[in-house]
């Protein structure tokens, strides 16, 4: 089986990557399926240091997202982070739309050509020798080329989206770096914390700081010691703490934590969308668990629609059909499971992207069905 993206490249990838690939059987019988390669980042350096390729992409996307957020936040306030994700997803889909048109056109044309391709396969039915298989493969490839079917076209939109998915992971994992309002809020919280009397500050925050240091001990800023008196390092701790942690902290600080309460309210107002904190892991608790469920369900619906629009994937004589059917059920589960451990904002992006993708598929399928029917009628 040949994947349009080499497996050894995918195995090196870090992050959550969705690859929409075209899978070729031994007989070069083409099917279309959504294959999920999900690899979680295993250490903080890869999160804090996106690298020379993804870093610039994340920086550009961060600026675009920051502008969207600032515009929405100045006009609507609560929920702006989520609304910015939805609009950003729509912008990405619109940019990639011309490529999606070509992909869908090639896919629909492939459906129309299946009877002719099956005739070629029929010629070599029962012939398993290498020479016959090579001849069949060559005839199929020439037939596809002659009819303008681009076998690798389905990979291009996904290859373009890979750095976007990586960059979005970094963006939401470290939103305070990219979104000005979040960065300012975290800085204000850090300044309040460093001004709390040292003994009380260490008593309350040291357990959380130790957990943070133990978890991310390979990070340059942490491995040499974590300074609770340094506002820059405290900002990293703020990014690590969850809502439940803050409830404990405020309770233990007593009146010394009064100055934190309005800042934490602002933090909650900025970071939540429909009560879901988007910069934290979705988790399995309500309401965060809605994101993994939505990500898995939307993945299932899009995969099911893709299969329904490609009859060859339902052909019992097609050995790859069973694999495709199994992916329809296993990939949404895997996507949902991995979404549990990713920033909820990334899961929201994936869900909205799937919804837009479903709409695109339906519209383009109707368009090309009508177009090819008209062309067939004109050609007699």
Secondary structure layout plus pairing:
Blueprint lengths: L6 H6 L2 E10 L5 E10 L4 H5 L2 H25 L4 H44 L6 H17 L8 H19 L1 H4 L1 H15 L3 H18 L4 H4 L7 H10 L2 H11 L6 H12 E2 L2 E2 L12 H19 L10 H22 L3 H35 L2
Antiparallel strand pairs: 1-2, 3-4
Helix pairs in contact: 3-4, 3-6, 4-5, 4-16, 8-11, 8-13, 9-12, 14-15, 14-16
| Helix percent band | over 70%
Count the strands? 4
For the biggest sheet, the summary is: 2 strands, antiparallel
Mean pLDDT across the residues is: 78
Structural class: mainly alpha
The separation of the N and C termini measures 38 Å
Tally of structural domains: 2
Rg calc: 25 Å
Helix and strand sequence: HEEHHHHHHHHHHHHEEHHH
Ranges with pLDDT <50 over ≥5 residues? 1-48
Which strand order does the major sheet show?
1-2
Shape: elongated
**How much of the residues is beta strand, in percent?**
5-15%
Number of H/I helices: 16
Structural overview:
By secondary structure, the chain is mainly alpha-helical. Strands 1-2 form a two-stranded antiparallel ribbon. It has 16 helices and 4 strands. The chain starts with 6 loop residues before the first helix and ends with a helix. The protein folds into 2 domains: 7-175 and 281-378, no CATH class; 179-241 and 243-276. α4 (80-123) crosses α5 (130-146) and α4 crosses α16 (344-378). It has helices at residues 7-12, 44-48, 51-75, 80-123, 130-146, 155-173, 175-178, 180-194, 198-215, 220-223, 231-240, 243-253, 260-271, 290-308, 319-340, 344-378; strands at residues 15-24, 30-39, 272-273, 276-277.
């Amino acid at each position: 089986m040949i994947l349009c993206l080499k497996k050894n490249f995918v195995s090196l990838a870090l992050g959550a990557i969705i690859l929409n690939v075209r899978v070729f059987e031994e007989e070069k019988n083409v099917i279309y399926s959504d294959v999920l390669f999900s690899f979680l980042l295993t250490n903080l350096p890869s999160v804090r240091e996106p690298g020379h390729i993804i870093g610039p992409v994340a920086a550009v996307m961060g600026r675009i997202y920051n502008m969207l957020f600032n515009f929405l936040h100045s006009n609507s306030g609560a929920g702006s982070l989520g609304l910015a994700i939805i609009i950003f997803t729509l912008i990405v889909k619109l940019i990639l739309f011309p490529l999606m048109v070509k992909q869908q056109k090639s896919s629909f044309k492939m459906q129309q050509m299946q009877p002719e391709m099956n005739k070629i396969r029929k010629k070599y039915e029962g012939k398993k020798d290498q020479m016959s298989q090579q001849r069949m493969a060559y005839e199929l490839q020439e037939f596809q080329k002659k009819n303008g079917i681009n076998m690798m076209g389905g990979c291009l939109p996904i290859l373009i989206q890979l750095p976007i998915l990586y960059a979005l992971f970094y963006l939401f994992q470290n939103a305070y770096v990219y979104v000005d309002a979040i960065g300012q809020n975290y800085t204000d919280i850090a300044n309040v914390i460093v001004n709390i009397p040292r003994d009380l500050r260490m008593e309350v925050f040291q357990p959380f700081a130790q957990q943070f240091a133990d978890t991310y001990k390979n990070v340059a800023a942490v491995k040499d010691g974590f300074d609770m008196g340094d506002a820059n390092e405290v900002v990293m701790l703020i990014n690590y703490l969850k809502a439940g942690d803050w409830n404990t902290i405020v309770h233990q600080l007593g009146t010394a934590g009064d100055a934190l309460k309005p800042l934490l309210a602002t933090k909650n107002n900025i970071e939540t969308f429909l009560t879901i904190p988007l910069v934290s892991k979705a988790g399995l608790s309500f309401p965060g668990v809605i994101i993994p469920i939505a990500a898995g369900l939307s993945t299932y619906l899009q995969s099911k629609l893709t299969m329904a629009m490609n009859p060859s994937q339902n052909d019992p004589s097609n050995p790859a059909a069973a694999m495709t059917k199994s992916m329809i059920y296993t990939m949404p589960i895997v996507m949902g499971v991995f979404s549990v451990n990713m920033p909820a904002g990334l899961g929201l992006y994936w869900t909205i992207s799937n919804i837009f993708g479903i709409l695109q598929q339906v519209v383009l399928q109707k368009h090309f069905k009508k177009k090819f029917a008209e062309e067939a009628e004109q050609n007699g």
